[in-house]
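Recap from last week: sequence in, structure out.
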Amino acid sequence: MKTIKRSTWSLPYFVFLLIFVALPLVMVLVYAFQSKDGGFTLENFIRFLHTPEDLHTFGYSIEIALITTVLCLLLGYPAAYIMSSSELSRSSVTVLLFILPMWINMLIRTLATVALFDFLRAPLGEGTLIFGMVYNFLPFMIYPIYNTLNKMNRSYIEAAQDLGAGPATVFMKVTVPLSMPGVFSGILMVFMPTISTFAVAELLTMNKIKLFGTTIQENINNGMWNYGAALALIMLIIIGVTMLFSDADESSENETGGLI
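Predicted structure tokens:
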């Protein structure tokens, strides 16, 4: 009986990636540099640079994404640290409670948040938007940090303690550097979807605040595919640059961690 090569089993995944990942990206690239008559043009990008409203929306979206990421990090790191260092908090039930929101659709969670603010009669605006963003994406910050801390080699901490390092020194010199891969993963998992989301902003502000994802959606819905594709490509470039810097920082931290 003829044996099937392992590479053959990867063919369905290759076809899937080609159709549902590579092809849409190629289409975005083609449409972004295409004029209405089908010719090559840079007009879509020039239009973006000469549209103050879209530039402001783009900058504001980055600002909201940065605020959300920082707040998620400030709230998520202590939670992940407590979960990984406490015997009681290591229970699977506690971990489940933190990651359970990830199993629920984001729109459902957002609608529940809107209902909560309606019940409290809180005005919907920037504050509710940031709260909803943090609420939705906080588990994506906690879990990778917790996973890294939980798998961290405890011998480094014990060695530092044996050398006379206090709890604060051990935390800053050992725990934090070794947890950086999880921190970088959490930052990417929060920043990238936050900068491109639109449904959360629409629901939590009743369309009072528009993010860049909403601008892309509006242009595509109105039939302006070329300009919408150009805006999407700009966002993809920003996300790609962020990933490149994060990969470089993570590699640097891993090399440093190996010298400890």
